[in-house]
Amino acid sequence: MANAALYDREMYIRSAIGTRLWAASVGRGPGVVLCDGLGCDGYVWKYVLPDLSRDCQVIRWHYRGHGLSEAPDSLDAMNIEGLTLDLGVMLDEMGLKEPVVLVGHSMGVQVVLEAALRYGSRVAGVVALCGAAGRPLDTFKNTRLGLTVLPIVQDAVRRYPALSAGLWGGLVPSAPALALVKAFEINSSLLNVEEMRPYLERLAEMDPRVFLSMLEHASQHSAQERLHELAGLPALVVAAQRDTFTPMQRSVAIHDALPGSEFFMLPEATHTGPLEWPELLNLRIRKWMHDHGILPPIGRLAG
């Protein structure tokens, strides 16, 4: 189990295809479900979770093949649609009867948008953080290089699974990897690179075949063309100004396609914006929740 001191309740549930999934909750009040990015198991919620749990029941869970959850027997099951079905099962098993707010970061944005489309009245609103509605590799690092490199890497991992697993486990959490993160992936004036170490260490424990299969399926999935169906659903779209994983224009595209949605930019932030501007982000999410009656109104807030 994860750190039990953080949660009021932890449990394992069976996914839509029978794999065991870890889930936990803390706090009381409106339900808020946190949905991770690819290869993540909660590092980005370090400051969001304790803040929201003061007034909400915050639910965390690990996708199939991630963190404390089992990987499916078939890599084909690592897809956005499958994760969305698992989310529905998790809501049932957690006994969440009232509509919940879905908060997604990175690939989690694809999950929460797909879930909002699928579950309708069970969703009170969505918060999309530093993500795209689909096909994230189309603009990764503002190029299409990822689409070219992915099949090459997948082929190498398929041919040499043992070697690939060894290299993955050794290189991902290494000091050089951390140095590259500091140099190219975060704004080191806003974030201490050591905050990224838990992410790299847990990512190193993940089967690279599972990671690459999930990346392939995520790169083919898109909800962008269906977002108009969510007209009227409260939505907060948060972009990071210096995000090169999912550049800001991807968040703008979500906002433009969601009538009535609100847009907010984290200045000078990168893909790890929730860690770089935690107080600012928490205040903005709370204001949005108060404005839409998800939390009791407390008067107008600035910003």
Question: What tags apply to this protein structure?
Answer:
16% strand; 8 strands; 303 residues; Rossmann fold; globular; single chain
Topology of helices and strands:
Blueprint: E1 9-14, E2 20-26, E3 31-35, H1 48-52, E4 57-61, H2 80-93, E5 100-105, H3 107-119, E6 123-129, H4 145-159, H5 161-171, H6 175-184, H7 197-204, H8 208-220, E7 235-240, H9 248-257, E8 262-266, H10 273-276, H11 278-291
Parallel strand pairs: 3-4, 3-5, 5-6, 6-7, 7-8
Antiparallel strand pairs: 1-2, 2-4
Helix pairs in contact: 2-3, 4-5, 4-8
Q: Which strand order spans the largest sheet, edge to edge or round the barrel?
A: 1-2-4-3-5-6-7-8
> How many beta-strand segments?
8
How many helices? The count is: 11
Cα-to-Cα separation, first versus last residue? 39 Å
Order of helices and strands: EEEHEHEHEHHHHHEHEHH
Structural class by SSE content: alpha/beta
- Radius of gyration of CA atoms, rounded to a whole number: 18 Å
Question: In CATH, what is the homologous superfamily?
Answer: Alpha/Beta hydrolase fold, catalytic domain
Q: How much helical structure, as a percent, in the residues? A: 25-40%
Low-confidence stretches: none
Strand content: 15-25%
